[in-house]
Amino acid sequence: MKIHIKTFGCQMNKHDSEAVVGLLMEHGYEITENRNDANVFLVNTCSVRKHAEDKVYSMLGELRKLKKKKNRIDSIVGVMGCMAQKDKNGIFKRAPNVDFVCGTHNFHKIPEIIKSAIEQKTKINLTDMDKQVFVSPTLSSRENKSAAWVSIMRGCNNFCSYCIVPYVRGREVSRPSKDIIREIKELVHAGYKEITLLGQNVNSYGKGLNKNIDFSDLLELVHEIKDIERIQFVTSHPKDISLKLINALANLEKVSRYLHFPLQSGSDKILRLMNRGYTLSQYLDIVNKLRKRIPDIRLGTDIIVGFPGEKEEDFDQTCQTMKEIEFAQAYMFKYSPRDGTTAFKLKDDVTPQVKKDRLNKIINLQKLVSQKKKK
Ligand code: SAH
Ligand code: SF4
Ligand code: F3S
Asked: pLDDT digit string (tens) for 107-129?
């Protein structure tokens, strides 16, 4: 049996796909890059913005044509990841060719689900969110052979008002540090030099664990591992960046001098509506502390334009802040209303044209900043 897997979304999703590929290989499946050659199509999905979902539905449409040419059991289609978790049975309605839907808390069961999908003719929907599970990829299922992702937590408890992630990825759960360290040691033993610690909000690592440990402590433990050359992590939430963490970054020389901590907006009014838990001045205070303590640090951010209620003056404050801080890297998005989030109840009152103009403007602004920084 040959499986083709297509992954959308963030690093956490890509990492889940690596883990699933590992499980499938252990169960005797072969992974193929060529979808015409596959007996099973697996799509790992993202629902962070409508655009991400549209891409998946259009791909499922293409698969329908492919499926018509083959026998059903020879062309099983499965949807996993965040959109599977969000839309559940709804996926079968919009894409009747889909055979199974597997949510974010069940991806470790993919090999059995595929087996059942082949044996029984009914559609399968496994989308309960009872327990977060950590499954690591095998050495051969990891895409990158010198840099490895290691999951340190799953889920998110922040409930930023625009964001679907807490609903589709569930409550935040930290992985025991001994498991993390064991995995990293194995990776280093296999020749990996670079490790990226993954989580939706790594700075809040440690909550709910028996051992009293926070993210700075974890970084120190990882740093002690011999033969690691570089340690990175994503993503950080500004409200959880402590002085202890800034000191750890300054002192641990193998930790990358890049910090990605999304600002989202430069307007306090919008930050409050977004439920981000900090003001612009608190954010700037962290930037100043970081730069004072670690002069060569590079900063990265995410920005949303066109959030409900964003007036020209709010957008200007975001632009001003971007000019002032001069981020080395920025990912910028148009606000996309997500059903089920609290912001969905607000009127999406910035017109598509204004969102587009603001996005172009801020992308151009950041281009100038990045060029200047590179010089
Ligand atoms: N946990 C990470 C990443 C979350 S998703 C973090 O908090 O940093 C990545 C980015 O997508 C977010 O930072 C935000 O800028 C953007 N995003 C999330 N929901 C969105 C929405 N509904 N519309 C537009 N952009 C969104
Ligand atoms: Fe979404 Fe906010 Fe959690 Fe990031 S911190 S995943 S933006 S709710
Ligand atoms: Fe990632 Fe998209 Fe899910 S950004 S957590 S794959 S909604």
From this structure: 999 999 999 998 888 899 999 99
User: For the segment 260-305, what is each residue's pLDDT rounded down to a tens digit?
Assistant: 999 999 999 999 999 999 999 999 999 999 999 999 999 999 999 9
174 CB near ligand 2 (under 6 Å): no
Query: Do 83 and 9 belong together in one domain?
Result: yes
Residues 245 and 157 in one domain: yes
Are residues 151 and 37 located together in one domain of the fold? no
Q: Is 83 in the pocket of ligand 3 (CB under 6 A)?
A: no
- CATH number where 42 lies: 3.40.50.12160
- Asked if residue 106 has its Cβ within 6 Å of ligand 2, the reply is no
Q: Which residues contact 69 (CB under 8 A, 6 or more apart)?
A: none
The enclosing domain of 168 has a CATH number of: 3.30.750.210
Instruction: Give the chain's domain count.
Output: 2
Q: What is the pLDDT of residues 130-172, one digit of tens each?
A: 999 999 999 999 999 899 999 999 999 999 999 999 999 999 9
Pocket perturbation via mutation, ligand 2, pick of 86, 161, 200 by most ligand atoms within 8 A of CB? 200
Q: Supply the angle between the helices 312-325 and 280-293 in degrees, to the nearest 10.
A: 10
Q: Provide the pLDDT for residue 72.
A: 56
For 224-288, where are the E strands, in sequence order?
Answer: 230-234, 258-260
Note the ligand closest to the C-alpha atom of 10.
3
Residue 51 lies in domain: 2-126
